[in-house]
Amino acid sequence: MSNLIIYGDIHGCYDQFISLRKKINPDKSDIEVCVGDIITKGKNSVKLLRYIQEHNIKSVIGNHEDKLVRYLEHENSNKKNPISLDENEKNIIESLDKQDIEFLKSLPLFLKYKNITILHGGVQNHHNLDDITKKEKSKILRMRYINTENNFIAYGKEDNNSIFWADLYDGNQGFIVYGHQWFKEVKINENAIGIDTGCVYGNKLSAVIFKNADVNNFKIESVKATNGK
Ligand SMILES: [Mn+2]
C-alpha cells in the first residue's frame, strides 16, 4: 500500500523540509507532492528547488512560482517588464538554470489522485478545474476570503463579514488539499484541508499523509521552524 504525502508551503525552508521528510521517511512507492510556494521568502529557495527535482517530488504551482514564470515570459518580449521583483526574487531568478526554469514552467494548476485534488489557493463552488479562464486561474492561486456577494476578495481587503473559501466549499471538485493561507494548525473542513502552517513565518512546516489516497485515512506530520525561518 502506498501513501500520498502532501507538503505545505515550504518557501525555501530547506532544513525544515529535510527534517520533515526524514520524519515521514517516504517509501519508494509513495507519491510526494507540494502545494506550491516552494520558493521565495526563505533562505534556500534554489537549493530546495533542485532537491525537489532530484528526488522526483511533484508540485502544483503557487502564486510565487507563477509570478516568476510570468516575469520570465515578459523578459522574452521587447517591452518593459510590468512585473517588479524584490531582492530575494531577483537573486532566485539569477540562480535559475534552464532546467529549473523548465520545471517551474511545467508546474500544473492542480493534481488529482482519486478524489483528492491538490492546488495552491482555493476554489469557489462555480469553478470547474477542467475548464478555467486565465482570470480564474489567477484567483484560484490566490483564493482566501469571499464576501457576502460570493466574490473573491483581494489580499488584505477582508473584513468581519468575509468567509474563508473552504468554509463554503461543497466538494464538487474533490477533497481539496491547499496551502497559501497559513494557519497555526492545519485547517480541516468537510471537503478540504489547509496545510500551510507558516514555516517561513516561524511557526512550523506540515504535511498530510493519506494512506492509499483515501480521504478518510490521513495523518499530519510537522516540524517546528527554527530561528524564525
Ligand atoms: Mn501562496
How does this model look, in words?
By secondary structure, this protein is an alpha/beta fold. The chain has one domain: Purple Acid Phosphatase, chain A, domain 2 (4-Layer Sandwich). The chain has 6 helices and 12 strands. It has helices at 14-24, 45-54, 63-75, 87-95, 98-106, 134-142, and strands at residues 3-7, 31-34, 58-59, 110-113, 116-119, 145-146, 163-164, 175-178, 187-188, 192-194, 204-211, 218-224. The termini are far apart. Manganese (II) ion is lined by residues 9, 37, 62-64, 120, 180.
Topology:
Layout: E1 3-7, H1 14-24, E2 31-34, H2 45-54, E3 58-59, H3 63-75, H4 87-95, H5 98-106, E4 110-113, E5 116-119, H6 134-142, E6 145-146, E7 163-164, E8 175-178, E9 187-188, E10 192-194, E11 204-211, E12 218-224
Parallel strand pairs: 1-2, 2-3, 5-8, 8-10
Antiparallel strand pairs: 1-11, 4-5, 6-7, 9-10, 11-12
This protein binds manganese (II) ion.
List keywords for this structure.
229 residues; alpha/beta; Purple Acid Phosphatase, chain A, domain 2; five-stranded mixed sheet; 6 helices; binds manganese (II) ion
Give a summary of the structure in a few sentences.
The protein has 229 residues and is of the alpha/beta class. It has six helices and twelve strands.
How many extended strands? 12
CATH C-level class: Alpha Beta
Please give the radius of gyration in angstroms: 17 Å
Low-confidence runs of at least 5 consecutive residues: none
Helix/strand/pairing class, anyone? alpha/beta
N to C succession of SSEs: EHEHEHHHEEHEEEEEEE
Second-tier CATH architecture:
4-Layer Sandwich
User: How many domains would you count in the coordinates?
Assistant: 1
How far apart the termini lie comes to 35 Å
Overall geometric form: globular
Main sheet specs: 5 strands, mixed
What's the CATH topology name? Purple Acid Phosphatase, chain A, domain 2
Strand adjacency order, main sheet? 3-2-1-11-12
State the fourth-level CATH superfamily.
Metallo-dependent phosphatases
- What percent of the residues sit in helical stretches (DSSP H or I)? 25-40%
Count of DSSP-assigned helices: 6
Q: Spell out which ligands are present.
A: manganese (II) ion
Strand content: 15-25%
Mean pLDDT rating: 95
